[in-house]
Give the backbone structure.
Amino acid sequence: MLRLPKFEVEKPTTVDETVALLSEKTGDVMIIAGGTDLMPNMKHELFTPKKLVSLAGVSALFGIREEAGALVIGAMTPLDQVANHPLVAERAPALAQAAGLVAGPQLRRMGTLGGNVMLDTRCQWYNQTYFWRKSLGFCLKKDGSACHVIEGGSKCVAAASNDTAPALMSLDAKLTFANADGQRELLLDDLWKSDGIFNKKVPPSDLLTEIRLPQREVKHLGAYGKLRDRGSIDFPLFGVAVRIDIDANDVVVDAEAVSVALQARPTRIRKFGESLVGTTLGSPEFEKGVQAAASLGHKQCRPMPNVPGDHEYRHAMVPVYLKRTILAAAAGAGPVHAV
Ligand SMILES: Cc1cc2nc3c(=O)[nH]c(=O)nc-3n(C[C@H](O)[C@H](O)[C@H](O)COP(=O)(O)OP(=O)(O)OC[C@H]3O[C@@H](n4cnc5c(N)ncnc54)[C@H](O)[C@@H]3O)c2cc1C
Ligand code: SF4
């Protein structure tokens, strides 16, 4: 049986109290939201905080609302609510689908959108017990000095594995963080750095309070595709969110795709929209554009043996999932996943 190390829990009820607690003991203090990732990681001794600051009693961090045309989701909103909320389904279908594919039902009721955005990177050589990691000589990300994914590598390439991140990026989400100096807003694209040890530019002591999806000028369609071992629970082996903007005649005016579970940060597929823009949904030109976009994704998305699953198989699945996800978005359907 894996035991949790000893720790204290603080239970603030306001954002100000939370921020004060987090600025008190930087390093030894961690935020706990639903705890669905942090608890297993603490049992594996990947994190050994002396104190946890629970967000469960901070009511200001919960809920989904519209504000000046934007869709605003509190960081503590459970994934289950994100997946099933009518406003999210209508305004951000890829996000609703991605949230609905995180883990399994119990974990989606405990796990939060904020916790998903701030999720630690994952690697098959890292998300293991202390005993298992020790027998391998540990690794760069925790307690060791070598990487087992890239032999001789000096940089950790553990994978961003948060399903909602690509969907949020495809919708140009903005994040609000609070710390002792006040509040600041950040484009989600600007949160990441390509370092698997800690893939965020914002320190772990900053509190994510809400996620804001700006109002979009034109109509958009969206879907999320997720390759995983078991349809009922697993982390992504490859994930992709697609957004297609259309005009009143169903002509594509812009398109974006963002991938996850490949490298340390979720990544936009460059020039993804080029083959789709100007085509009409369902037309032969659109179908050709879909093939071209899937091939482009295959060239750019290069899985490494960081997360479980054969990386060549994962690579072969990239165009398959990309194509299915584009077609699902165009048909107002989705999500795309193995059952
Ligand atoms: C069996 C299993 C399967 C899983 N499958 C998936 C999956 O398929 N896809 C997936 O994406 N995830 C998966 N997860 C991980 C996890 O359940 C989700 O990512 C969940 O959304 C995490 O949210 P949480 O509220 O539980 O975060 P926590 O575990 O509480 O926190 C996660 C991290 O975020 C930080 N944090 C949390 N909230 C904030 C905040 N407001 N501000 C700043 N930092 C914060 C914490 O300090 C911690 O470092 C799985 C977990 C398990 C155990
Ligand atoms: S990629 Fe994996 S094995 Fe390599 S340093 Fe990072 S966690 Fe460790």
The chain has three domains: 8-56, 59-119+159-213, 219-337. The chain has a mean pLDDT of 97. Residues 175 and 211 are 5 Å apart (CA to CA).
